[in-house]
Amino acid sequence: MSASSTQPLAMLMADARWLAHRYDPGHDAFQFLQVSRARHADVPFLTDEYIAQGVEPIVVRREDAVRAAPPSAPVHFIFHSAYCCSTLLAAAFDRPGIAMGLKEPVLLNDIVGWRHRGAKGPEAARALDHGLRLLARPFTAGEAVVVKPSNLINPLIPGIMALRPTARALLLHAPLDAYLTSIARKGMWGRLWVRDLFGKLLREGMVNLGIAPSDYLGLTDIQVAALGWLAQQAQFQALTGQLGERVLTLNSEILIARSTESLTALTRHFDIALSDADIAAIVAGPIFGRDSKTGADFGQGQRERAAQDGKTLHAEEVEKVGEWAGLIARNNGIVMDLPRPLRG
Question: In a 3-state reduction of DSSP, which class is residue 308?
C-alpha cells in the first residue's frame, strides 16, 4: 500500500515505529513495516522471518521518504564477523530516551545484493546514504541509534563510515577457535552458511590469502570457515589503520568475561550517556543471561559449558584447521589480536 492511503507521509517518517525495512531498486522505493519498540526487543533480527509475516508494508519512493524524514539522530555501528555476541551487544542499547539498537536491518543487505547484480556505484551509494538516514530515526528525541548490520555488508564499511563522518564503530570478532567451534556445532546449516559467506567475500574481492581458486573446492567446510574469518580479520585490521580513533575492536570472549568494563568503554566510544547504574542493570538483566538468538535462559555457567563441550567434540578438526589458518595468517601479515582494542 502507499503512504497516502494510510497517513500523511511526514507523520509516518516522524514515527520510528515505521521501520525502513527493505529497499526495492526496481521501483527506487523503501518499504516500511510497523515494529514496536517491544517487538524490537523480542526478535533477534529485523528480518522477514521475524517481523514481516502476514504484514503488508507501506511503500514510499526513495526521494519522497528522504524529503519527509526528520533530521538524523547520532548513529554508530557494531560491525562484526559473526558468532561473536553482536546481537547481544546491540540489544544492550535498547534504553528509552538514551539509545536504540537495530539488529540486522535488511535494507542494507538489499543494497549489497543490488551491487552484486550490477548496480552502478553512485546509485548504490545514494541508496545507502538515504537508507542510513531512514534507519537513524529515533523513537524519542535525544536518542542515539546503534546499528548492527549483518556481516554480509562488511564490504560496505568504508562507504558507510565515509557517508557518516561523525559515526564511530566497533569491530567485534570471536577468536578463531571459538568461531570454528560455533560453525562445527551448528552442523550442516552452519557449514552451508560459511560457504555462502565465502562466495560473497570472493565476489567482493576480499579473499586474497595466497590460495589458488582451483584449490577452494578441495577444502573442508571448517577450512572454508577459517578462510572467511581470516578475510574479515584482514579487513578489520586494515580498517583500524584507515579509520583511526573512529574505530575500536573487541574480542567476544573479553566482552563476556568483562561485560561491565566492555560496555562502559563502548558507551564512552559512542558518546552515549549510559550511567554506571544503567550498565549494571543491563549486565545483570536478561540480555546477558539468555541466548540472543533463541531467547532461552542461560543457567549458571551454561554458556561456558556449551562452548567447552563444542570444543571437546570437534577438537581435532578445529585444532588442525586452526594451525593451518595460523600459518596462512602469518604468511599474509594478519594478526589474531586486532589493533585498537576496546579498554574498560
Answer: helix
Measured CA to CA, the distance from residue 184 to residue 226 in angstroms comes to 11
Cell matching residue 69: 524524514
3-state secondary structure 212-273: CHHHHHHCCHHHHHHHHHHHHHHHHHHHHHHHHHHEEEEEHHHHHHCHHHHHHHHHHHHCCC
234 within 8 A of 171, measured Cβ to Cβ: no
Looking at residue 343, its pLDDT comes to 85
Cell triple for 284: 545483570
Tens of pLDDT, residue by residue over 118-127, are: 999 999 999 9
Which domains are present in the chain? Answer: 9-332 (3.40.50)
219, 205, 238, 223: which is closest to 335 by C-alpha? 238
Q: Residue 25: which residues within 8 A CB-CB, separation 6 or more?
A: 110, 114, 119, 123, 127
Radius of gyration in angstroms for the set of CA atoms belonging to the chain, rounded to a whole number = 20
Give tens-digit pLDDT for 144-168: 999 999 999 999 999 999 999 999 9
Mean pLDDT, the chain, whole residue set: 92
Whether the per-residue pLDDT at 284 is higher than 60: the answer is yes
In angstroms, the Cα distances linking 101 to 76, 136, 144, 146, 304 are 9, 10, 9, 5, 26
C-alpha to C-alpha distances, 5 to 2, 54, 64, nearest whole angstrom: 6, 19, 15
pLDDT digits (tens, 9 = 90+) for 209-231: 999 999 999 999 999 999 999 99
